[in-house]
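Sequence of non-specific serine/threonine protein kinase (Astatotilapia calliptera).
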Amino acid sequence: MPPKAKAAGRGRAPAKRKLAEEFPPGEVLKDTMKKEWKLGAPIGQGGFGVIYLAEENSANPVGADARYVIKVEPIDNGPLFCELAFYMRAAKPDLIQSWMKSKKLKNLGVPRYWGSGRHERGGQRYRFMVIDRLGTDLQKKFEECGRRFPRKLVLQLGLRLLDTLEYIHEHEYVHADVKASNLMLSHSDPNQVYLVDYGLAYRYAPEGLPKEYKEDPKKCHDGTIEFTSIDCHKGASASRRSDLEILSYCMVQWLCGRLPWEDKLQDPLYVRDAKIRSQENISEFMAKCFSSQDKPDEIQRFMEEVKSLGYTAKPPYDKLRSILQAGLKTIGPKEDGKLEFTSASGAAAPPTKVSAPTSAELESLALLSLPQLIRSFPSCVCMQQPVSDCSQCWCSSGQTSSPLYVMLELSATT
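Predicted 3D structure, token representation.
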């Protein structure tokens, strides 16, 4: 999936946004409830913000085992503001816990919201949000598995996402951008998966009343082009059926490796028309994606059920779950809750390999700002994983001896 095509799919983003400047480890931020949070190492960059490890403020430095992350963006930027609206309404820990109890769920794939606020540094104002720390995203796992997941894993993911989407929908929102890179494993439990990035989340039912279908040419093709729904291609706002249509495309791609329109992602009209044809004849679409022996009947039934939904209709979540559960039963033993990331052939996924920078690269990197640094130095200081998902962002020898820390210190003095 070419990154450029994905970027093109988010066509309404402002032309210019400010980049977040670096904050030093130990910076303390105070949220709207007067609670203080201490920043640790930066572990990733999303859009125009920076993501830091964080803990509740104390005399201790924030270590590699931090339980939280803080997303920071300049206050004039829009994406974090949109995410905050969702998190504050729908992701408070007590809301999530209450839902899990009522539905008898052991886990729900929505990161918990712990706080937010504004912070000023060097004359620049920032907005920040505190959420659970998570681990690796599923796109990395998908690539490591040779761009095909086994059928059991896909059905497990589909069931967990149904639980997550039902929760989001019942709290008046749709996600509108479900995809592997927006799905992250728990930092502490590799069998839990979370849906992240609510920058496109849309409140489809303010006060419980779903908005009516309306096309807006300025909104055509919003979302990630290969997965976005037909409604969004046409300029309508995302709905509950949009999220489920997007999920069906994800499941097909995870099973067969690619969608039929992936070679034409630079042509959104072609992609839209290909999706319309796929919905007009789902059986033919499935035949293009799978051999007759490999065709997962439960995915076809899932797609047909979603196709029958009206724009404002409430999806039959239990029926959709039963369709995927029936597919799981044909595979073998009872679902054990474990997510096994192997290739479709059964081989275990290899570990992510990252090359260490040369000494010349280290010298040049020392002159960069933090956003540039993260882009240019994608690997963790332990050289084992990308910095965005490594659980050991400072090496065991200590924070001040890590090359990334040295470069941060140097960049702060140049």
